Amino acid sequence: MKYHHALSSAFIGVSILLLQPQVANALSSQQVGEIAQEITVLIEGTDKKDNGSGIIIKKEGNTYTVLTAAHVVGKAKEYEIVTPDNQRYQLDYSKVKKLPNQIDLAVVTFSSNQNYQVAKVGNPDKAKIGTKVYVAGFPKQTASRKFSSINFPPPGQITANANQAVDGGYTLVYSVTTLPGMSGGPLLNEQGELIGIHGRGEAATLDDVTYDEINPQVAVVKSNNNLAISIYTFLRQAKVVDVDLGISAPLLQVAQALTAEDYFLKGVDKYKKKDYQGAIQDLTQAIKLNPKYAIAYNNRGVARSELKDYQEAINDFNQALKINPKLAEAHGGRGDARSNLKDYQGAIDDYNQALKINPKLAEAYLNRGTVRGRNLHDYQGAINDFNQALKINPKLAEAYGNRGAAHSELKDYQEAINDFNQALKINPKLAKVYYNRGGARSELKDYQGAISDYTQALRINSKYANAYNSRGFTRAKLKDYQGAINDFNQALKINPKYADAYYRRGAVRGNLKDYQGAINDFNQVIKIDPKYAHAYSNRGVARYELKDYQGAIQDYTQAIKINPKYANAYYNRGVARYELKDYQGAIQDYTQVIKIHPKYAYGYNNRGNARRELKDYQGAIQDYTQVIKIHPKLAQAYYRRGFVRGKFKDYQGAINDLNIAANLFQKKGDTENYQKTLKLIEKVQNLQKGSSKK
User: Fold this and answer.
1) Other beta carbons within 10 Å of 452
2) What pLDDT, in 10s, does the model give residues 252-291?
3) 245 pLDDT exceeds 80?
4) Rounded CA gap, 555 and 546, in Å?
5) Which of 157, 401, 434, 529 is found 20 to 30 A from 247 (Cα to Cα)?
6) Percent of the chain predicted with pLDDT > 70
7) What is the distance in angstroms between the CA of the first residue and the CA of the last residue of the chain?
């Protein structure tokens, strides 16, 4: 909706933002959005690397004045102003005027013979706690994400209107979901009037992370604090930068004692600077002055969560909800804290409440899905939540990333990769999504693609120990053992307590026959994690290779104590016992393997060998017969059964088995074993002939 203003003859040809003294009826969100569309411009660097927003505040002849945040035009370079009709106008940087006293405001100009709407000014002093407000602006562009139109998120509320500003001249705090690039855009009241200039926000993007180190963590539904500079602050300084708007703001009140809202603003500012303890102190002062300040309790809870003081955070969220049971942020924050305390059902209950209050809260679906997937292993339920989050916000990269992680857990790796691709289109800087995609590619045996993803993750985050570890593991699969060791070394430089990196390096050293080096690595694993059963088992393998059979048996026994269902440890202990001629002990171990894995052919095979050594030929034949049932084309099984049948004086049965073995060896091109089998057949035939003469 466009507004036209009749001006006195003294101002013909000049339109300026107008101060509105009367309280008008509230407009609909759509109407306010239409106003925002007309008065908001995109300020974009010609190199396309930076962009922000601005507000048309004056027209004089063909010259328009735009108010923006000073940091939007902080770099001395070429900019263009893009108006609501998508026309581009060159910005003369030499004419950029920044306000004094480090107030984060600047005015710029452009010339056009087109008619653009000028903003109206409202009264920011009337923006009390709970007042509905709107923000508009142009989100920052990326290589994969182009915004061709203004972003006008749902309205929020004023949470503080302070008397004393923090750095940059900021006094207004409000809860609206904003994005980077919207700085310099308008803060509008319900009448569509300009009451502030948006300058700082909590970006609506979250850190990428994932289940079990490779899946995304809970995305925090924080207080969504945004800061604006009051339009009155600009009006009081406008003449200093030679901008005459023909109106003035009320006189600034003499400084008095700090109010609750002053302390709240200070707390928000310190939180943004990661001074969480300082934020807690200021928010505590705000609460002392206003014990009913629900959002102050909420924000203090968020700050306490940052310091991992989750129980005290929950206490704060409880207080916030006593005052305002409809504060969705407090339910979200309490859900996050409960999740960190492993109260997963309590966390889900809170996210459910947040969604009852605000069914469009995408982050609550995201967080609930993350808890369902990462902690409760309800991957399908998690996917359903991520689907809902993406219906609300199709640009929520973390929802794609987390949904991909859930698909990976369900072994739907291609679908997982599709989701990771979408997440990276939205945000190409998500190192952990590259990491996760690498994991999915590895599962599909696309090892080179996996290595490329891990490498990209490391370009973004050179301290990403998990990426080095996984790249090393993948290189080992490609038999690039030295490259693998180099990666494990890097992972251990970053995290000297990284048990899995020691473990994998030990395994690679074992493949290189550096058994002592492998043992040293497994020793480190066991020091870090005495319950790491695989480390004991693999150390046992290395000791076996060094012919320390007794030491190997001790390690396998320890692995079995930790995991009584560890089939490989039983199997390897059986092998070591066989070497020490403890055939009965070996039989017991192979029997355990078969109980755990009834289709494990080598368990039957080795038990048959041990029974043969004890001259239990019938038992050995039964075991080799089981091997043949499982693997009918296994030449060695026929050979061994034939050998034992010969010992058992079943010469014809032996010859039949050995003929089958010979044919299978010949088909495989195994000349050595083929010739060996023919010789045994000849020997058995001779025994058969000798037997028939008796």
Assistant:
1) 16
2) 766 679 999 999 999 999 999 999 999 999 999 999 999 9
3) no
4) 14
5) 157
6) 91
7) 116
Answer yes or no: are the C-beta atoms of 272 and 200 closer than 8 Å. Answer: yes
Q: What's the pTM? A: 0.78
User: What is the 3 state secondary structure string of 318-378?
Assistant: HHHHHHCCCCHHHHHHHHHHHHHCCCHHHHHHHHHHHHHHCCCCHHHHHHHHHHHHHHCCC
pLDDT tens sequence across 170-219: 999 998 888 888 999 999 999 999 999 999 886 544 333 332 332 233 33
Whether the pLDDT of residue 467 is over 50: the answer is yes
Is 440's pLDDT higher than 90?
yes
Mean pLDDT confidence for 647-673: 94
Residue 335 has which token pair?
Answer: 């859900």
The answer to whether the Cα torsion of 29, 32, 34, 37 is positive or negative is negative
Residue-by-residue DSSP string for 504-552: HHHHHHHHTT-HHHHHHHHHHHHHH-TT-HHHHHHHHHHHHHTT-HHHH
For 638, the token pair is 């026929």
Compute the chain's Rg from CA coordinates. 36
Query: Do the beta carbons of residue 395 and residue 205 sit within 8 Å?
Result: no
Distance between CA atoms of 172 and 195, rounded to whole angstroms?
9
- pLDDT score of 660 more than 80: yes
**Whole-Å CA distances, 244 to 57, 286, 481, 675:** 11, 37, 72, 105
Q: Which helix (H) or strand (E) holds 619?
A: helix 617-630
Is pLDDT above 90 for 129?
yes
Closest by CA to 290, choosing from 321, 258, 261, 257, is 261
Specify the pLDDT at position 12: 28
Cα 490 to Cα 505, 513, 532, distances in angstroms = 11, 22, 22
Pairing of strands 194-200, 225-230: antiparallel
For 9-256, CATH number? 2.40.10.120
**Is 565 strand, coil or helix?**
coil
Strand residue runs (E) in 30-169: 40-45, 51-60, 63-68, 79-82, 88-91, 97-98, 106-111, 132-135, 156-166
> Which residues lie closer than 8 Å to 545 by C-beta, 6 or more apart?
510, 513, 515
d(CA 173, CA 178): 13
Quote the CA–CA distance of 63 and 243 in Å, as a whole number.
12
Long-range CB pairs of 479-486 (<8 Å, 24+ gap) are: 481/508, 481/511, 481/512, 484/508, 485/509
